[in-house]
Structure formats: C-alpha cells, structure tokens
Design brief:
The chain has 195 residues and is of the alpha+beta class. Strands 1, 2, 3, 4 and 5 form a 5-stranded antiparallel β-sheet that branches. It contains 5 helices and 5 strands, in the order αααβββαββα. The chain starts with a helix and ends with a helix. Helix 3 runs antiparallel to helix 4 (130-140).
Amino acid sequence: MKTLALRIAAGIAMFGLVQLAAYLFLWQPRFEEIESAQASEEKLKQDYVAKKKQAVNLPLHQQQLGEIDASLGAVLRMLPGSIDADALKQLGSTAARAGLTVEQMRPSDEELRREFYAERQVSMRMSGRYHELGAFASDLARLQHVVTLADLTLDSPAKDGRLQIGATARFFRYLDDEEIAAERRAAAKKRGPKK
C-alpha cells in the first residue's frame, strides 16, 4: 500500500512538474505575446480612429488651405513692389507729426532678400518723449508701406525730459515672379551643376 501511495504521489508530483515546465516554457511566452499583441491592437485602433477623423475632414482642410493661400496672396499683393525715396520721406514726416525730432536717418545700401520678399533697413536717431514714440509706432501702422521698428534703444532723458531714441525701421516689399526666378537661378548657379 505504501508503494502504491508513493507511486500515486510521485505521479502527481511528476504531473505537476510537467505542467509547471509547460507553463514556464510553452504557455507563458505565448501569454506575453498575446498581451503584447492586444496592446499593439489598441494602439492601432486609436491610430485608425485619428486618421479616419482626418480623412473625413480632408475636404474641409483642403478648402481652408485654399482660403489661406488666397489670403496670403492678397496680403502679399498689398506689399509694395519697390521702396522709393517717397517711402523714406513718409517715415520722416510720420516721426515729425508724432512730435519726434529726427536727428539722423540712414538707409542701408542693400536689400536683404528673403524667399518671396525683400527688406530694407533704415537706421534712425530721434529725440522725443515716450508718448510721442508710441504715437510714431502707431502711425507707422497706417502707412502705405509695411514698416516695423526693431533694435529700439532709449537713452536717459535730457534736462528737458526728452529721450534719445535709436531704432531701425524695416521696410518690406514683395518680390515679383521675375525677381524670384532670378534669385533661384543665381542660387542654383552658386551651387554648381548637379553631379
């Protein structure tokens, strides 16, 4: 009887060890693969839903992109084609109307060319009160040309309370199609022939 009980116990132990080994070496890696695949499936479902939303709204996005392109074209056409002496006179008279005294205006000799516009800088030295400077900046927004102020410096006021003001006015103009094509040809020439 003891040998029978021992055989049954050994058989149960052997069956348990076989089951444990099967779990550790066969089933557990499969369970991990299944869990990984389920996590991947969830991420793929979320990606699918996000891309489906984009696809459903594609015609609306294309329409909005067309409207933005049209708006950009309209704004670019508002930029003047050239920066002439009249623009510089307008800058000086705008400063004078605001109450500033223009001591020096020095336009740069060259234009800085960008992809579709050009920029010319004018260095200025002026004197005036803080509120006059604010009025000048406000009046610049009403000019026919697109002008921004940069590199603004304010030095301590003199005895009469007027500030010494340094600024760079930047005028912008639109490059026409011929100028853009010429710029691209010049850039291509600098790079040299393709090999």
